[in-house]
Amino acid sequence: MTHHRDTSIWRNIWTFAVLVLLIVLHLPCYAQQWPDCIPLKSVTVSVSYTGQSDAGADKIAVSGSYSSSLPASSCVMSSTQPDVASLIALGGYFYFSSELTGTFTETLTYPTFTETVEDYKLNGIEVYTGGIESESPLAPGGAGTATIAPVFSFGASLLCLEPSAGLPIQLTSTGFTITGPCNSENALGGVDEGTLNIVVSFNPTRLEISPTFTSSFATAGAPFTSPLFVASGGVPPYIWGFKDLPVGLNLVSAGNQATIQGVPSAPTPDMSIDIDGELMSYSGTFFQITVTDQTGVTATAYDAATISFSLFVPLPESTKREALYTALTKSLEGFAIALGVVACEALPACAPEGTVELPELTLTETALMKSAATDFVQALDPPDSNYTSIATPPSVSVMPIQASGALSQSIVSAFNNWAENESSETSLNVALITSLNRASGAYEAGNTFWQLRQLQAAKWYSLQLSRAVGKEPVLRQAVASVLSGTEVNLAIDPSAVSAALQRVAQSGLSSTEVNFFTSAGITPDQLQLIQTMIPEANGINFAPTNLASVFSDSAAITGLEQHAKGYGIFGADRNNDGVVNCADLKVVTAHFGATQSSLSYNPMADVNMDGVVNVLDLVLVSQQLPAGTLCQ
Amino acid sequence: MIKPMLLLAASLLGVLPAYCTTLTVSPATTDTTLGQLVSLDIDVADISDLYAWQFDVDFDPSVLSVVGISEGAFLASGGATFFVPGTIDNSDGSVGFNADTLIGPLFGVDGSGTLATVEFDTIEAADSAVTLNNIILLDSNFNNINFTSTNGSINVSVTAAVPEPNSVALILAGACCCGLILRLRWLLLPVRNSA
C-alpha cells in the first residue's frame, strides 16, 4: 500500500513563509515615512510547524522547522507595533539585499519510529521542494513514496494563514512572531491540522543612548530630575549604571529609559567650586550614565554606551557669600600685592625714594587681573541669553614697566613678560567663563546647536588657558630670580593693606581702579559687588612679605601647574566623559577633513574652531595624553 | 665688481626664504610596467622638533590606484604616535588628510626619515604625477614648520623597458669585441699557415 502524505499543508506553510519573506526581502525601506527606522546588522527567519496529518488510515505527527540568517542593509521600526495587514498596507517596511537560502527540516513521527528528512530549500524568492522521494522503512500500514509539490514562487495564494485576516504580530526592534492555525484538506481527503510559527529576529543593532550629551540645572535642597535618557539597539534587557553622581542624586531606570533624580546637596568641601557655587571641578562636573545589553556573542560590536552631562548647582545666597569670602582669602597674594602697592603710593617707605619709580597702578593692574578680575568675573556668571554669539577674548592691556634707576632692564623684561602672560590669562578666562555661561543659556532655551558651539568655544579657550597658565611658573621664577639681591624689594605692609581695604570700604574704588575693572570686562553690577565684599576681607590677616618671595612661592607654583592641567583636561576632553584618552583622539579622527560647511562637521572635533578638522586639532588633544599612551 | 656681487648675494639671501626642511616623494621617478605594485616613500629631511604632520597625496586615477598607506618610522622614533591613514579616493585620485602625531607632552623629532609609504597599483600604461598637497608640519609648540616639497611621478609602460647601456659601457663593449676578434685572428693564424 502506498502511503501518500499530503503536501498541501506544506504548500500553505511555504507560501505564507514566502510572502513574509518577500515583504522582508523585496520591499524598500521607507525611512522617511517611519523616522524610527534604524539600520540592522542581520536578520534571522525561523519557520516551524507542528501538527497532525490525517492521511487516510494513518495519523502521523508532523513537525518542521527552518532557520536562516542573512546579512541585511535594512530597517526595522523600533517603536510602533502594527499587524501584518497594516504592514502590508504601508507598502512594506523592510528591505534586505541578500537572498534567503536554507533547508527546511521535517520530522515525521510514526507510531513506531521517527524520521527526519531535509527536503525543502529556499533560494532567493523561490521555494524549491525536493520532495520525499522515498520513505524507508515503510510506514506501518503503507508503502511507497511521498512526493511534495515542486515549486512555489512569488504570487502564490495564501491557503494557510491570512495576514489580511488581521493576525496580530508583536513587532519590536528585535523582530516579530506570527503564530496561527494552519489547517487544510490534504490530497487523500484527510485534514492536516497544525500550528504555524514564523519568527523573524532582527539581530542586534548598535547600542546607543539618546541624547548623548545634555546639561542640567539643579538647586541644592530642591528635587531634581534630569532629562530622560533612552537606550536603543543591542539586546535588551539593559543594565544601567552611573559614575560620579553628585551627592543626593541617584539613577532611576526602567527598561530602556533612565533618568537622574534626587535632591542634590550643597557641594562638599572636597569639591572645587567657584564663587557662586557652580561646580567647576572637572572631576565633579561631569558624570556618566552607562547602559549595557545582554549580548555576549559579539561583545566588541556592541560597546556599552556612555553619556555625560554637566550639572550646575547654584548655591543659596548665604553660602555664596561664604564662598566669596573664601575666594578672597585664597586671593591673598593678589590682594596683598595690589592693595599694598596702592597703599605704597602714599607710603614712600614701600618704594624707596629715588630708587624705584613704578608707573601708577602697574602692579595693581596685573595683580588684580589675577586675583580680582578672574575671580569676580567668575563670581557672577548666570546663564547668558546671548548664546548665539561666540565670545571673543577681551583686550586686556598692561602698561609695561620702563627701566629706571634700580629697576634694571632684566627686571623690567622679566616683569613685563609675566604681566603680559597674566593679561592673556585674564582675557582667556573671561572668554571661557562667558562661553560656559552662554552654553548654560542655550541649554535653558533648549538650543542644542548653540549649546554645543558654546561648549566648543569654552574648551578651546580652556586649552589656550592651559598653555598660558602652564607658562606662568617659569615666568614667575624669572621675576623672583631677577628681584633677588637687588634693591627692588617691595615689602608688603599689612597695615597698609588694611588701610587700603578700609579706604575702599569707606570711599569706594578710585576712578583709576574703576577704569581698570571696567577694562577687564567687569560690569557695574559686578563692581558694586566687589565694593560690597571688600570690607569682609578686612579681617584677613595679611602676613608681611615681599615680591621676590611671592613670585617664588612653591605652593603657588604647584597650584598653577595643577590649574594648567585641569584646563587642559577640560579642553581636550572631546567626548565629555571627564577624562582625556584615546577615545578623544577618535572623536577628532572620526570627522577628519570635515569643514564647517560639510554635513560631517562636528564642533567637538574642531578643537581650535578654525572651521576645519585637521592635524592641529589632533595635536591639541594628543599633547594632553600621557606620553607613551598607545592608541590604535 | 665684487661689492655689487656681494650686495646681490646679500639681497638674495634676504629675499629668498631659508627653508632647510624638505618633503619629497621618493623615488622621484619610478618606471614600472602595467599591473605592478609600486611603493613610494614620503620623506622629510633636515627637520627640527617635528611633532605632527599632515598631507594629501594626489595622482592620476586613470593610471594609478592606491592600495594603502602606512606609517613611516621617523616620527615614531620620538615616542608613541597616533597615525591617521587618509581617505583613499581612487575615483578622484587622492588620499586626503593623512596625518600622524606624537602623543604626550614631548619634544618633536629631529633629522631625516620616512613619514609614510604609499602603495599604488598600476592600472593603465601612462605617466602620472604624484603630488603632495595640504601639507602641515607642526612642532611641539603647535607652530608651523616651514618647508619645501618635491613631487614625484610614476611612469607605467605596457612591457618592461630594456635598459640601454650608457656610452662608456658601449665603448668598453666595443673594445672587448675588437680585442676578441684580434685574439681569434691571432689564434687562427697558425692554423691557416699550417694548412
Characterise this structure.
The complex is a heterodimer of chains A (632) and B (195). The relative contact order of chain A is 0.08. In chain A, the strands form 5 sheets. In chain A, strands 2, 3, 5, 6, 7, 8, 9, 10 and 11 form a 9-stranded antiparallel beta sheet that branches. In chain A, strands 12, 14, 15, 17 and 18 form a 5-stranded antiparallel beta sheet that branches. A 4-stranded mixed beta sheet of chain A has the order 13-20-19-16. Chain A has helices spanning 8-26, 84-89, 282-285, 317-330, 332-344, 362-379, 409-444, 448-483, 494-507, 511-519, 524-533, 547-551, 554-572, 582-589, 615-622; strands at residues 38-39, 42-55, 58-71, 75-76, 101-109, 114-123, 126-129, 151-152, 175-181, 184-185, 191-202, 208-210, 213-217, 224-225, 229-232, 239-243, 249-254, 257-262, 286-292, 305-312, 491-492, 545-546. In chain A, helix 14 runs antiparallel to helix 15. Chain A folds into 4 domains: 8-202, no CATH class; 208-312, Immunoglobulins (Immunoglobulin-like, Sandwich), CATH 2.60.40; 322-562, no CATH class; 581-632, Orthogonal Bundle (Type 1 dockerin domain), CATH 1.10.1330. Chain A has 632 residues and is an alpha+beta fold. Chain B folds into 2 domains: 15-157, Sandwich (Immunoglobulin-like), CATH 2.60.40.680; 164-195. By secondary structure, chain B is of the alpha+beta class. In chain B, strands 2, 4, 6, 7, 8, 10 and 12 form a 7-stranded mixed beta sheet that branches. Chain A binds chain B through residues 582, 585, 589, 592-593, 614-616, 618-620, 622-623, 625-631, and chain B through 51-54, 79-80, 82, 84, 86-87, 96-97, 99, 101-106, 136, 138, 140, 142.
What would a concise description of this structure say?
By secondary structure, chain A is of the alpha+beta class.
Strand content of chain B: over 45%
Strand-residue proportion of chain A: 15-25%
Shape, per Cα inertia axes of chain A: elongated
Quaternary state of the chains: heterodimer
Number of strands of chain B: 12
Q: Do you know the CATH topology of the largest domain in chain B? A: Immunoglobulin-like
Structural class of chain B: alpha+beta
